[in-house]
Design brief:
The protein is α+β, with helices and mostly antiparallel strands. Among the domains are: about 80 residues, Dna Ligase, domain 1, CATH 3.30.1490.110; about 60 residues, 2-Layer Sandwich (Nucleotidyltransferase, domain 5). The strands form 5 sheets. Strands 3-2-1-6-11 form a 5-stranded mixed β-sheet, with helices on both faces. Strands 14-13-12-17-18 form a 5-stranded mixed β-sheet, with helices on both faces. Strands 7-10-8-9 form a 4-stranded antiparallel β-sheet. The longest helix has 26 residues. The protein is globular and about 85 Å long. It starts with 9 loop residues before the first strand and ends with a helix. The relative contact order is 0.14.
């Protein structure tokens, strides 16, 4: 197992989530379409809030997911792209500028390279490494923003970037959990950036959009404006916290609380009889118990409201809400909780939609209708973009250099 390299037209993506681990295999067609041909899914072990806390348990679960993917697709996996998450991940926007000293003052490829190196030299927390350096816009000497500055005349050239970084030791552990299985980690993307590739159209990115990926252990979010990423973040809070609150508040076992949340959980506080009760039947050592439906909804609503407000406030501190014109898009496994849309609509200062599948209807039959798989689909699209760009010095060369620097700093190359 894990000896034969992936076929040239095969891509594999892995997401190590708090609730489950997914390995997705896709083929790139001759027309550059992406066709998901199989999924390997395994319940997570040794993962908490998107981070590995038990290496052996997590590694075994990852291997099981990969084996399942191999058996379903008849592909022997050797290389993967990996989604990254965790509350340690942070971000910042930076701006740099370089002089165009050539006699004709024409912007060339080397000037973009100079700006990229200047951006890479900007400080981040000492124990962190860069995951992404995402270009936002270039600026000529009169501060005119441009997307393609090469060939234009200017006495200087500026650039802005969105830099996403994470704690070196946490990232090292995540990458090593794959690498020690004899598999190459060919590329990485933070979960929110990956999910955006599956959910947001270019028009929505241009108009300004917020994508929030509600997972079991983390909430990952990213903000686009004028086609570029302007803010991103990760909270170490997710759907599991609703379950934990139900378990404590109703004094029931965690497993029963999870089943209650999935089967009958609701965030609304009206629309049902206030005297309505839910009967939890006897199950093994658990005696039959009656609970107030209103109590269940109140517990869930308070936690979900707190979580959404944390995201709202962080985006507000970044000062980018005025740039969001196309709305807020909610996805991820925890977005399936009933009553989420009306609650979210009272919290966010922009129209809200819940996204259950990829933006192109019918495109991915294995993933359509499953918001918990949006990140893995987006990661495959991210991988496809990189594979199609390979060999082009512009953009891809800098991105590949950036990623290689990350792995070198982790001592994994």
């Amino acid at each position: 197992m894990f000896l034969k390299r992936n076929e040239p037209d095969i891509l594999v993506a892995v997401e190590i989530g708090t609730h489950k681990i997914v390995a997705a295999v896709a083929e790139m067609t001759a027309t550059r379409e992406l066709n998901v041909i199989g999924l390997g899914e395994e319940l997570s072990a040794g993962v908490r809030k998107g981070e590995i806390v038990d290496f052996k348990a997590a590694s075994d679960a990852i291997q099981s997911a990969l084996v399942k993917a191999e058996e379903i697709t008849d592909v022997q996996i050797a290389e993967v792209y990996l989604a990254l998450s965790g509350g340690h991940i942070g971000s910042r926007n930076i701006a740099v500028r370089t002089a165009i000293s050539d006699e004709d003052q024409t912007v060339r490829e080397e000037h973009l390279s100079d700006l990229a190196h200047m951006a890479a030299a900007q400080p981040i927390p000492a124990d962190h490494v860069r995951i992404h350096e995402l270009p936002q816009h270039y600026y000529l000497d009169n501060e005119t923003p441009v997307d393609q500055p090469i060939g234009l005349s200017s006495s200087s050239l500026g650039a802005s970037y969105h830099v996403i970084h994470g704690l070196e030791t946490r990232l090292e552990t995540t990458v090593r959990s794959i690498r020690e299985l004899g598999i190459i980690v060919k590329g990485c993307a933070v979960s929110s950036y990956a999910a955006a590739q599956a959910v947001l159209s270019e028009a929505q990115k241009m108009a300004g959009a917020v994508l929030i990926d509600l997972g079991a252990g983390t909430t990952d979010y990213i903000v686009y404006a004028k086609g570029a990423v302007v803010h991103s973040g990760v909270l170490g809070v997710g759907g599991d916290h609703l379950t934990q609150d139900l378990s404590v508040g109703l004094k029931i076992p965690y497993a029963r609380a999870e089943r209650l949340k999935v089967d009958q959980g609701h965030l609304a506080m009206d629309g049902f009889d206030p005297d309505d009760r839910i009967i939890l039947p006897r199950d093994g050592t658990f005696d039959e118990k009656s609970i107030w439906r209103e109590s269940m909804s109140l517990i869930m609503r308070l936690r979900q409201e707190e979580l959404l407000k944390l995201v709202t406030e962080d985006i507000d501190r970044a000062g980018v809400w005025p740039l969001v014109n196309s709305g807020v898009f909610l996805t991820g496994g925890a977005s399936r909780v009933r009553g989420l849309l009306p609650l979210a609509s009272t919290i966010f200062p922009a129209p809200v939609q819940i996204i259950a599948g990829p933006r192109t209807e019918g495109e991915d039959r294995l993933i359509g209708g499953r918001p918990d798989l949006i990140t893995i689909l987006g990661l495959l699209r991210y991988a496809q973009t990189i594979e199609l760009r390979e060999g082009r010095p512009r953009g891809w060369a800098r991105l590949r250099h950036s990623f290689r620097s990350v792995l070198e700093s982790m001592r994994l190359l």
